[in-house]
Amino acid sequence: MAQTSSWSLSGALRGMFSKPTIDENTWEDLEYALLTADFGPDVTEAVIDDLHEKVDRYRTTDPRDLQRMLRESIEERLSKYDTTLKLTERPAVVLVVGVNGVGKTTTIGKFSKFLGTYGRSVVVGAADTFRAAAVDQLATWAERGGAQIVRPQQHGQDPASVAFQTVDFAKRNGIEIVLIDTAGRLQTKGGLMDELSKIRRVVEKQAPISEVLLVLDATTGQNGLAQAEAFIEHAGVTGLVLTKLDGSAKGGFVLAVQEKTGIPIKLVGQGEGIHDLTGFTPHVFAQKLVG
Ligand code: GDP
Known about the structure:
Layout: H1 10-17, H2 24-36, H3 40-58, H4 63-78, E1 92-97, H5 104-117, E2 122-126, H6 132-144, E3 148-150, H7 159-173, E4 177-181, H8 189-204, E5 209-217, H9 221-227, H10 229-234, E6 239-243, H11 253-261, E7 265-269, E8 277-279, H12 282-290
Parallel strand pairs: 1-4, 1-5, 2-3, 2-4, 5-6, 6-7
Antiparallel strand pairs: 7-8
Helix pairs in contact: 2-3, 3-4, 4-12, 5-6, 7-8
The structure holds guanosine-5'-diphosphate.
């Protein structure tokens, strides 16, 4: 993960944890810090109840104990989900879905690079066939990420047929991972969900779908999640990718989003560079968040 973490809570909490003792203000300050970091009211309340109970049980008044308990409580909550990517099929087909602008194209490039460093060969399918500029942008990122790309043969080609051709290309050329980019036009939600279902049907005739990754922009927090609701309801999402965590003061969204959706976070984007994508490790995240 990046060294500088603007989403880290430690700045906001430093004053509190370096006080001589836990007092009345401590709890209010903690609640304010968690809400500001976008943990959301439900998670904030649950975490604070949990900490109150532990502080009473261990009869401590030391703010450093509280800091440790907060870190442990967050890690425990984040660890309830299986955040490992399931990419054992050959080829392993991954659909990448999400609203335009969240960072889908960039994520596909970074993910290709990430997989390449583990020695995996990757082909990207440009199944958002409506926007020619989007296809070119995807091609640039695929190249940066060391992946091959299957492009639509003509503007507006049926996205499902591009997805079909991509999986077919992978099978014929022994490529291990297929990443399929999909459209994210919110204006035509019904049409978009039908398009995704068709892609699924067509792909599943050739190979099982290993993962459906929903990309979310961490800077938009709970609003972004509301926008992505249709994907969660209809697209069979198996994992979340949180992007732009580097530009967000909302690290708590990571916990809120998992608790709200019940879907594990599998990848985290923390920058615009090709290497700025990592897997999600609860222990590392909790440590960076709380300090
Ligand atoms: P798409 O429309 O969903 O395909 O979104 P793009 O991949 O084109 O990304 C939209 C913008 O977000 C671009 O300017 C990206 O550079 C930026 N972006 C994507 N991921 C990240 C990230 O993890 N951190 C930051 N800071 N910017 C990102």
